Amino acid sequence: MPRETFFNLPKDKRDHIITAAIEEFSQAGYSTASTNQICKKSGIPKGSFYQYFTDKLDLYVYIMTLAIEEKIRFFSVALTEFPALSLLEQIRLLFTKGIEFAKTHPQYAALGEQFSKESDESAKSAVIKEGDKRSDTLFLQMIDQAKAKGEIDDSVDAQALSLLLQSLNSAVNSYMQDRYGSLSYEEHEKDMKHFIESLLNILYRGIKK
Amino acid sequence: MPRETFFNLPKDKRDHIITAAIEEFSQAGYSTASTNQICKKSGIPKGSFYQYFTDKLDLYVYIMTLAIEEKIRFFSVALTEFPALSLLEQIRLLFTKGIEFAKTHPQYAALGEQFSKESDESAKSAVIKEGDKRSDTLFLQMIDQAKAKGEIDDSVDAQALSLLLQSLNSAVNSYMQDRYGSLSYEEHEKDMKHFIESLLNILYRGIKK
DNA sequence: TAGAGATATGACCACGTGGTCACATGTGGT
DNA sequence: ACCACATGTGACCACGTGGTCATATCTCTA
Q1: Is B201 on the interface with A (CB under 8 A)?
Q2: Does any CB of chain B come closer than 8 Å to the CB of residue A29?
Q3: Nucleotide nearest to A5 (CA to C1')
Q4: Which of A23, A131, A186, B178 is the most buried (most CB within 10 A)?
């Protein structure tokens, strides 16, 4: 956690630093990100950096915490807005909301992308310890609920389905990124909706004739 | 491509260098890997390194090429061994062979893992240019074939299914890695087989009741 | 045996890194 | 007006990086 000095800073200066850090970490990931660059971008001297944060990792974990909080807030708002959806509808909602999140919070999304690629294990575990992996339990909860309601077949393995949904969720995002890059969301909304429906169709009916 | 000097080297010295490079790149990825470390590990002086390779990227692309060739050979042998399998059987074969490859060639598998995480775009594109992405076309071919044979439903979106299979394939591998680490393959063969069957079951029948 | 051309070698370079520290500047209370 | 203490600051450190180059050592031909 950042030192008290950091939180005593005037809000706009703090925000400058946060913005600069998000920018750097979302482009470079933890290990290749440069504290010098963050200082230069936010206009603070090197010495001040180490007045505010104990080290690079301290800042990184703080930034990731902000991003995680934001994303969780985003999803849970979406889910509670529509209670009593079927599993398939819930999944559809999460997919589309996932894309929406990446669109409205591109920096946070990029941060997450970089995090999943991070090779520095100590940095990864430090972030995870500070709270994540809730998406897995979220999916498992949804699946169990749906089974209880008799929505889906009992022969479906919950663990396997959860893995499938997780990998699918990230795959959809990177697919959209690869295909349309940073182009406007609205322009390709139809394509994306159609693609998601195709996936859901496979998921629901299976591929058998 | 390495310089001629490199290929004139006695085979065991060349192999030492290759081994050291694989070790380093599979642990650190391209951008964080250190040429100094590779020199130290393989026992060659710094000067010799730059006698053999034009630069770090030259060596990296060469190593990746070796890994890709090996993996493609592995898969195509497996597929041609059993001609006339159904799509589901082909997919099952690829999943299990994928795990087997990761088990028998852990270094190469780790190399691929690191590559997919690589953030240095120039390195990525240099490797891709030298030949990859065949797995995507492989899946698409299999799907088209299966459709032609009337094995799977026409309403299934080939592109969507291919993406699903790709992401699932890598997800299965990292899942196994996370769960069982480097433990012996045989010990958990049953678990893994069971897990794969669960996934194939969802894929085939869908999740609907 | 001489000499030419390929190959081996490690000291060296400029640079960027994360992190430190002595000192300058601000701020609030007396 | 003073002083104590929090805060700001950038020159500096040791180190590791990818890459170079003059020189030493081979090897093979004449």
Answers
A1: yes
A2: yes
A3: D7
A4: A23
Could you read off the pLDDT of A61-107 as tens digits, one per residue? 999 999 988 988 898 899 899 988 888 898 899 888 888 898 899 99
- Interhelix angle B158-180/B189-205, nearest 10 degrees: 160
- Give me the CATH number covering residue A104: 1.10.357.10
d(CA A143, CA A34): 42
* Residues of chain A found within 8 Å of residue B198, distances taken between Cβ atoms: 156-157, 159-160
Q: Give residue A184's pLDDT.
A: 55
The number of folded domains in chain B is: 1
Residue B99: the pLDDT is 84
Task: For residue A100, say whether its CB is under 7 Å from any atom of strand C.
Answer: no
- Is it the case that residue A22 has pLDDT exceeding 90? yes
pLDDT band at A131 (very low <50, low <70, confident <90, very high): low
Q: Which bases along strand D come within 7 Å of a protein CB atom?
A: 6-12, 16-22
Residue ranges for chain B with pLDDT beneath 70: 131-136, 177-178, 180-187, 207-209
pLDDT at A183 over 70: no
Structural domain boundaries, residue A113: 4-205
CA distance B8 to chain A (A): 35
For the residues A10-27, what does the mean pLDDT come to? Answer: 95
Q: Which of residues 160-179 of B touch strand D (CB under 7 A)?
A: none
Nearest by CB to residue B167, choosing from A116, A156, A171, is A171
In this structure, is the CB of residue A51 within 7 Å of any atom belonging to strand D?
yes
pLDDT for B31 equals 92
Residue–nucleotide distance: B176 CA to C4 C1' (Å): 59
**Which nucleotide comes closest to B45 if you measure CA to C1'?**
C9
